[in-house]
Amino acid sequence: MAVPVDSLTKQTPASSTLRFAFGNVLAFFILLLIGVLAFSIRLFSVIKYESVIHEFDPYFNYRVTQFLTKNGIYDFWNWFDDRTWYPLGRVIGGTVYPGLTLTAGTIWKVLQSLNIPLSVETVCVFTAPVFSAFAAWATYLLTKEVKGTGAGLTAAVLLAMVPSYISRSVAGSYDNEAVAIFALIFTFYLYIKTLNTGSLFYATLNSISYFYMVCSWGGYTFIINLIPMHVLLCIVTGRYSSRLYVAYAPLVVLGTLLAALVPVVGFNAVMTSEHFASFLVFIVIHVVALAYYIKGMLSPKMFKVAATLVVSVGLVVCCAVVAVLVAVVASSPTKGWSGRSLSLLDPTYASKYIPIIASVSEHQPPTWPSYFMDLNVLAFLVPAGIIACFTPLSDASSFVILYLVMSVYFSGVMVRLMLVLAPAACIMSGIALSEAFDVFTRSIKFYITNLTEYLQIDAGDSLPGNNVSPQNDVLKNEKKEDALKERPSRKNKKKEKEIIEKPSVKSKTEKRPLVLPVEASFFALFLTVLLGGFYVVHSVWAAAEAYSAPSIVLTSHSHDGLHVFDDFREAYAWLSHNTEVDDKVASWWDYGYQTTAMANRTVIVDNNTWNNTHIATVGTAMSSPEKAAWDIFNSLDVKYVLVVFGGLVGYPSDDINKFLWMVRIGGGVFPHIKEPDYLRDGQYRIDSQATPTMLNSLMYKLSYFRFVETDGGKGYDRVRRTEIGKKHFKLTHFEEVFTTHHWMVRIYKLKPQRNRIRGKTKKSKSKTSSTTPRSGAMKKNPWH
């Protein structure tokens, strides 16, 4: 049974000051160790493999950073890249979030000025681990503002090792999230700091931090919607204050002006629906501020009249603003929302209307095991943290609760946003663990204090047989005092009642700390430490095994040892050394960034996915028969076609598994491509039961050409676990020029037209010129 106590120890002012100073120094060194931990746990990819850029998008960011460091900031803003999206091209300076590039470029410049000769690639590889340490420190600052230093240190060490964040911040993961998560947490910290202090200085810093977040990642819209929701929540629940106004108003004004300076955002900061909530709440908070100001100047009767007038005017202004906003966005088919925002609000929207968004694996909803994989024990500690935030509920703790609720929803819609949930889960778990440790250690300290006092008393007592435990002695003394209180003398009955009743009333108003039995405290403390040990082991395993392997280099373990599959770099090196500089390479958009960065060749589409029609054209070519596909690629001046095939080694993320998305995206623009033509009874098959349309498609032929030669004529696909349907066939319009060692990447060249039908061309030309008018000999549109 828990025993409440009034106070455990009494400290002098000098001892408390010394303890406070020592605690600050200790917290500083712990934070240094947390930063070292956050950095070092993300180096497994470099230790086990090599210092190399990971995934797909980081290669584009690396290429842009190279251009920035070589040509300077002004050329970067005006860079028109003619090697992507041929023949359209892309204006890089106006279509990228420059925060990551400018950060890494600045770090490289500073290192060069200090005569530290690191390459741009090395800086890019280690940017994410460095900023993960910054994110851990920002988490400490944020949680400290909510629940104190102990909770802040616990949350920081949890974030340093959380697998969800490690998956996007290992060494080599040079993506926008590498710096954006730090900017997100630091912006929230400055908002809470301003909310607690009412300082205009911190409000200005908050706007600057928000500007850095806008520069870094498109997820800044999460901030500019979450903070207005919290402000509105505080107003509705009667928690409005001048500090709330100072924390919000400068952020909207200064933050929006700064955000509009980023070229990729521009006037979207005031013209798109993602930002309208902040403006509406901005009007509401001014109406409320005016009402509170008038209330302090007028009598209650006059205030009712003035409040009615202010609310009426405020409603009129809100209605006018809403009408203007509706008029602005009414012409847009998506009502001013971006496709990704609509996918978050309506999880079925992308699959219905924008298959290019639904085709991305990280845009799919997560499964339940992914929560336990990426959060582990934090998933069980979060509810306890929510309860702790309600005791007592403050503006800061209500913001953290709202942050958690919204991030849980968005992570359930899109697996990529598990990254946004990770800091909230670490903050809540840090608060829960800190509160639990506080109770356990307080109980143990109380036991040790009483034990010391008992031993001091016992040392002066020489009577034998006095072997009663200190806890029993304390309980007996309390029982004796209760008995004396329950049985007062009749003479002093009134005095005793007064003496007893006054402390009882006082005890109701004062909150006393909770002390558990010492056995329960030790056992609970042991279980908590054991739980933390499981979390550490799982996080280290995730960092070393699950998330350290770069997608550009693959490995597998078998009975005969470790196998390394370096086919991607092998293929890009072949393109770089065996093709002309101006040759165009067609592939699915997943490999566009890598082809441009590593092979230095012009691509038709890439991972930016800004032009759905262009991507649909490539998807249509891959879905069409060989002759129609040749016509499409030839019209785009394509020389080589690259396909990724995993049927030989069991690589599941190949183009055959992505083929249905090519069909869907192509069919969304060109209606003659129909998904049911590639399905047999609603099933996607590549065996003997596959449809003729599937077996004659270009993707099927380029993937399985000469595949039967690898296993003695069977043609067994290890990914689909079946024998292919069409085994022996020849290519008439394409020729194989290179296949990597493990058959993972295959490159084909378009045959020139004169080599295919040289003799027939002259005859057909003479016949058509003599029988048909010149104007009728028009070239057929290859896309129809």
UniProtKB/TrEMBL annotation:
Location of region: Disordered: 466-503, 754-784
Molecular function as annotated in GO: dolichyl-diphosphooligosaccharide-protein glycotransferase activity; metal ion binding
Basic residues: compositionally biased ranges: 754-766
A GO cellular component annotation in the UniProt record: endoplasmic reticulum membrane
Stretches that traverse the bilayer: 20-41, 118-142, 148-166, 178-204, 210-233, 245-270, 276-294, 306-330, 377-405, 522-544
Keywords: Endoplasmic reticulum, Glycoprotein, Glycosyltransferase, Magnesium, Manganese, Membrane, Metal-binding, Transferase, Transmembrane, Transmembrane helix
Enzyme Commission number, as recorded: 2.4.99.18
Coiled coil: none
Topology within the bilayer: Multi-pass membrane protein
Domain annotation STT3/PglB/AglB core: ranges: 582-641
Pfam family, one: STT3-PglB_core
Cofactors required: Mn(2+); Mg(2+)
Catalytic activity of the protein: a di-trans,poly-cis-dolichyl diphosphooligosaccharide + L-asparaginyl-[protein] = N(4)-(oligosaccharide-(1->4)-N-acetyl-beta-D-glucosaminyl-(1->4)-N-acetyl-beta-D-glucosaminyl)-L-asparaginyl-[protein] + a di-trans,poly-cis-dolichyl diphosphate + H(+)
UniProt-listed PANTHER family: DOLICHYL-DIPHOSPHOOLIGOSACCHARIDE--PROTEIN GLYCOSYLTRANSFERASE SUBUNIT, DOLICHYL-DIPHOSPHOOLIGOSACCHARIDE--PROTEIN GLYCOSYLTRANSFERASE SUBUNIT STT3A
Family affiliation: Belongs to the STT3 family.
Name by which UniProt lists this protein: dolichyl-diphosphooligosaccharide--protein glycotransferase
Biological source species: Deinandra increscens subsp. villosa
